[in-house]
Amino acid sequence: MKLDVLTFSVVLFCLTVFSFAQGTPSAMVDPKQEVAILSLSPGDFPVPESALSSIDGEIQSVFVGLGRFEVVGAPKRLTIKEIPLLVEAVKHSKAPSFAMTDEVPVGAQSFTAPEFDNLLKASIIVIPVVVGFSSEYNPRLLSYRSRVKVSFAFVGVQDGKVIAFRTLETTGDHLIDPRSAVRNAIDDIPDKLEYEIATIPDFQLARKILSVEGRKVTLVLGSDLGIIPSDEFSVLYPTVENGIRKDRFVGTIAVRETSPKQSIAWIEYADSPITPECELSEIVKVGIENEPYLHAIIGKGMRHPKFDKADPAALTWSDTTTTWVPGFRFGYTKLAYNLRPYVMFEAPLNGWYSGSPSVGAITYKTSASAFNVGLGLETTVYLSRFQLVPFAQFGIGLDTFSITNADTDTSVSKLSSKSALSALGGTVGVDAGYLLNDKVRLNASAGASYYGALDSTIERLWGSYGGFFVGLGATVSW
Question: Which residue in 124, 150, 277, 280 sits closest to 202, CA to CA?
Fold first, then answer.
């Protein structure tokens, strides 16, 4: 009978209950201890050998790239049912009566004495198993689609128990080659696996604070153990109440500089003093930052279109003094410097109109829209929970309009622009933010913005607009 994902889940659940019944969780991994990684088991799925080898290489490259472990490959593949047998064998090796034999049987597999001894020297054993695999032509997408699903069991050698389980799934597509679709699915494994590893407490290094000088915090571990600029940590002060440990949240820090043995971090915010007695917990983030906002530009406003029954083929355009601009900034934060690029998208509301009015027997479908897209840079000044974020961005305007006879679906517009782009401009300003937590910041904004029309037609319609602005927004990082 084939074993499926449900069987695997039941086995993992039983292992987890058994493991937690044995005592407290194992300690964090010490720097540069060994991690033994077994070869990927295909489970009950027809995974090509070339794909298994490629995934094995990607898994090992992730652990090596983290810089925190000495990686040892173990050329054995265990089935779902054999995972608890290996856990039991590791646990049995801790007994005083244990004596190493020439071979250590684990289900249908047998480890030689040197192989099993290498496992026992490791800090954690990683057991990957394929729990889903498919590769077939998808007529809806007109391409080949491959799906790879791998589950990982992490076994702590010191205590002889399972410390974590993680499952990740990737997909890949290719128009003509199914093997390339499989390769594309495999290429997505490293990023997802690295993120999952970061969420396992036992894989987080026991980072410590060496000293604190003002807002500068020196950590005793550096780049040789995988710390990079932009890493963020929660600062916790350990306390004990009635014999129970309770960590009190103090604040957050972000790494700005690294050397092989030390790192320099800066305090983002702190509710109480950070001292060397505090402990740190890694804040796991992908590195994406999003900010929806609404700005009100006060000065020369963007002109607002309206339908004109007297001249339905031209619309009328009224002057305004305030331009309302909802927008969205999308940035990447995992960079070595405190200067971050972002892309922005805006939709000035003054430039929008849509309707289907009738004049006599004719119904006109009319619409006008206005967009700004562009690039920007921002930096951050930390003032405890308050932050100042100066930013500057350059944008292009993409304004469109359409007036058609609804009965004949033909254009009746008298208007035409000579340019595909409608405006050029930019914005400079500052967000004054308050951090609610390590992922959300509320912002009040102020600055100046201006967009100039690129031809006479656009100038007669939406017109150039700009002035000083104020606004509100929220930044969410993940």
Answer: 124
- What are the tens digits of pLDDT across the range 142-183? 899 999 999 999 998 988 888 898 999 999 999 999 899 999
Asked whether the predicted pLDDT for residue 18 surpasses 50, the reply is no
Residues recorded for the chain? 478
* Bridge-based pairing state of the strands 124-138 and 34-38: parallel
Residue 438 has a pLDDT of 82
- Please state, in angstroms and rounded to a whole number, the distance separating the CA atoms of residues 439 and 371: 28
- Sort strands 362-379 and 339-346 into parallel, antiparallel or unpaired: antiparallel
pLDDT > 70: percent of the chain: 89
Rounded CA separation 4/198 (Å) = 27
> The domain 209-282 belongs to what CATH superfamily?
FlgT, C-terminal domain (2.40.10.410)
pLDDT at residue 46 greater than cutoff 50: yes
* Pairing, β 288-300 against β 244-258: unpaired
- Segment holding 236, helix H or strand E: strand 232-241
Task: Taking the CA atoms of 236, 237, 241 and 244 in sequence, report the sign of the dihedral they define.
Answer: positive
What is the C-alpha separation between 201 and 182, in angstroms, rounded? 31
DSSP class per residue in 103-138 = EEEETTEEEEHHHHHHHHHSSEEEEEEEEEEEEEEE
> What backbone torsions phi and psi does residue 465 show, to the nearest 5 degrees?
-150, 155
Distance CA 358, CA 353 (A): 15
- CA-to-CA distance for 90 and 82, rounded, in angstroms? 12
Tens digits of residue pLDDT in 385-414: 899 999 999 999 998 877 787 777 777 766
Residue 1 banded pLDDT, cuts 50, 70, 90: very low
Report the predicted TM-score, pTM, of the whole model to 2 decimal places.
0.66
Pick the CATH number of 288-477 from 3.40.980.10, 2.40.160.20, 3.40.50.620, 3.30.70.141: 2.40.160.20
CA atoms of 59 and 190, how far apart (whole Å): 7
pLDDT (tens digit per residue) in 404-462: 877 777 777 666 544 568 899 999 999 999 998 888 999 999 999 999 999 888 888 88
Q: Which CATH architecture has domain 5-203?
A: 3-Layer(aba) Sandwich (3.40)
